[in-house]
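Table S2 (continued). Query chain:
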Amino acid sequence: MTKTSHRAWTEEETTLAYALYCSIPFSQIHSGNPKIKELAALIGRTPGAVSMKMCNLARFDPELQKRNVNGLKNGSKLDEIVFRKYESNLEELAYQVHLIEQNIYHEQYHIGIFYDKKLEKIPEGKEKLSKVKTRIGQDAFRNAVLNSYQNKCCITGINNTELLVASHIKPWRVSDPITEKTNPRNGLCLNSFHDKAFDCGLITIDKTFHVIISQNLAKTDMDESTREWLKTYDHKQINIPEKFTPSLEFIEYHNDVIFQG
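Corresponding output:
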């Protein structure tokens, strides 16, 4: 595709830029990032232009605004349209990325923003399509959540991705499929142990993002070293992510409905 400096951004290109924005840490948005270079080559733009577009999109992120990280302000109306369209629904975003790859670029190039392997052609039938969308939505959710916490457990700092889970704050089973299930603000990056404890309600986080341990866990039989390790994190503030800070609405739900007290 020929590079042109004044060609207007299409919705498809902006969607790919937003998908990449969701899947890498904010601090890694720069023209030297290999993923940004790849996307730039695909859509026929410079890495600098892609980086700028991603920073244009960042200005709509309320959590970045709270930290006075405002992105670039001179974007287009299309930027906000794309941001609002997908900010709470990564399943639909990941699906649209796949369609763009399949229909516009004819699978000659694998974008690999949310998933490492090229997907098969979208199957026919609502049930099969639903399964594919769910699978790529889950992958997108995990990717966005882990990257927003820089691939570190928000409680312990463990950075081995094999031990990390994108944990839902409001459980998947009761979350709205459009606005909550793959909303990255409904996620925490936790190690497998704390993920299980959080899922069971044996720990929670409060509205100031501090860990609270249930009395049921505190009274559980365990060796003294493990007990002291657990106590280390009681009332400790989690590491706040670069973007997609947990929504207080989801935290309140976990406090009121899931946490065992």
